[in-house]
Every structure is written in structure tokens, then in C-alpha cells.
Amino acid sequence: MKILVPIDFSQDSLKALEFALGLGRGKKTEILLVHIIEVVYDFASQAAIALDTMYKDAESMMNKLVKDYSSDEVHLKKIIKEGTASISLARIAEEKRVDLIVMGTKGASGVKKILIGSTAVNLIKESNIPILVVPEKSRIEQILNLTLALEFSDHEIPLIQKSIGLSKEWDLPLNFLHIQKSPNFKDKLAAIGLKNYVESTYDEKNTKVNTINSDTLSEGIETFLRINEETILIMCHQHKNFWKQMIEGSQSINMAYHIHIPLLVMN
């Protein structure tokens, strides 16, 4: 697997690097450490001096990271570029054909504060590659499984297949989550059908289909995560209902929703 990790030398980005190293443990993995220099200056005469200093500092710190974190199993490479972070990261990820982007974030006060207005949400918009967002307060050493949130829509079939592939790649059980606004017979049948479908295409027979009854998607996921902290939550970028409610919904709901587990967004 080839993983891209954006590095700004903060503790958040180093935590994301450690998470990526954990995913690659036990298998041959290549990790691209990418630092984007975003230059802001007022005078053209300052440009060359400022840029040269930034490159030298970044080169020195990146060399140290490669030396400290490289191993026989994981091969680290460094890339330093000038540009806009989200656009540059998306372009590099495509050019290098990476399988996954793992990035840290300070957000722990709701999905809106984790993603909106940050490099993460812009990168989700720009890139077609899966992005794993690692919140500052997530306990990455305690991850026991993956949880795929579903709406029971046709566009989710490739998402299920990709998630099964990651489950096998990372040796983590895959479970499913569906939020019901009002319990009904159709959704119950869909949940049974999903379990049968997964068991016919996936070797793991102990897969769980978790159904949470809730008035809103955000409250339902919050309820689930309170008792299932040891997971990576997988969402599809095409989940319009989810993102609309989480990002555009009531401020009280957004403020109440404290995501503290890794979030994998599939495009």
C-alpha cells in the first residue's frame, strides 16, 4: 500500500504519521511525507529569502522524520512543494497513485470544526482518493475494527467492496452502521439483506449490522460512537443527507457532536 501523509511538523501531523505506520505494520508499505510551503509575503524582494529559508528548514526536519521512522517494513519518501495545500496534495496523490491519504486534525468539537474551513475538507473536495482524518484526541492504539455507515443506496455497492478490501488489508473486522429516523419493516429487511450480501462476498461471518434509531443522523452516529470508540468510521462523500445535516444543520447538534475517532471519507 502507498500512503500519503501531509506533514506540517505539528503534533497532529506526527500522530497521523504514526497512525499510517500502524496501518503499514507487518506488510510492505511506502509512505510519502509531503510538506507544502504556502508563502505569504508583502514584498517581492522578500520572496527569495523567505522561500529559501522555508525550504532549508523543511528539508532538515523531513530528513529527521525519514531517519527516525523508516524501517525494513516501511519505506519513507519526502516531498516538499510550494503551493496551496489542498490543491497540491490532491495533485501529488494522483501523480504518485497513492492508495490512501492520512492526515491529522485538531478538531474534536464536531464534524463542522474538524473539516469545514480546513485543508481536510478542501482536500476531500479536490481528491478522488480515500482520506483518513485522525482527530487530535483519537486513541489510535485501541482501534479494533472498521464501521461503514450506510444509507442503503445503490452508489454504496463499490463502497462496500472497497471497505471489505481495507478490512482484509488492515486485518480489522468490518461492521456496518445504519441510522433509522423511524423504524420500519423495509429498513429491517434491508439490514437482513445487507448481512446476507456481505456474508456472500466476505469471509468474516461475525459481521455486525448496527441499527440506531434516532431523529437525526448526527445524533444517531454520536450515540453509536459513545459505545463504540475503538473503530474507524467510514463515510462516503456521496452521502448527501449525512453531510448536509452535519455541516448545514443546527448549531446545537454540531456543537454536541464530539467525534474523537478516525474518520475515513471515501470519494
Summarize the helix and strand pattern as letters. EHEHEHEHHEEHEHEHEHHE
Taking all Cα atoms into account, the compactness measure Rg is 20 Å
Tally of helical runs: 10
Instruction: Supply the CATH superfamily name of the largest domain.
Output: HUPs
What is the helix content?
40-55%
Could you characterize the architecture of this molecule?
The protein is 45% helix and 23% strand. The chain is an alpha/beta fold and 267 residues long. It has two domains: 2-135, HUPs (Rossmann fold); 140-266, 3-Layer(aba) Sandwich (Rossmann fold), CATH 3.40.50.620. Strand 1 (2-6), helix 1 and strand 2 (29-37) form a beta-alpha-beta unit. The radius of gyration is 20 Å and the shape is elongated.
Descriptive key words:
267 residues, alpha/beta, Rossmann fold, 10-stranded mixed β-sheet, 10 strands
In short:
The chain is of the alpha/beta class and 267 residues long. 45% of the residues lie in helices and 23% in strands. The chain is built from 10 helices and 10 strands.
Secondary-structure map:
Elements: E1 2-6, H1 11-24, E2 29-37, H2 44-69, E3 74-82, H3 85-95, E4 100-105, H4 111-115, H5 119-126, E5 131-135, E6 145-150, H6 157-170, E7 174-180, H7 185-201, E8 209-213, H8 217-227, E9 231-236, H9 240-248, H10 251-256, E10 263-266
Parallel strand pairs: 1-2, 1-4, 2-3, 4-5, 6-7, 6-9, 7-8, 9-10
Antiparallel strand pairs: 5-10
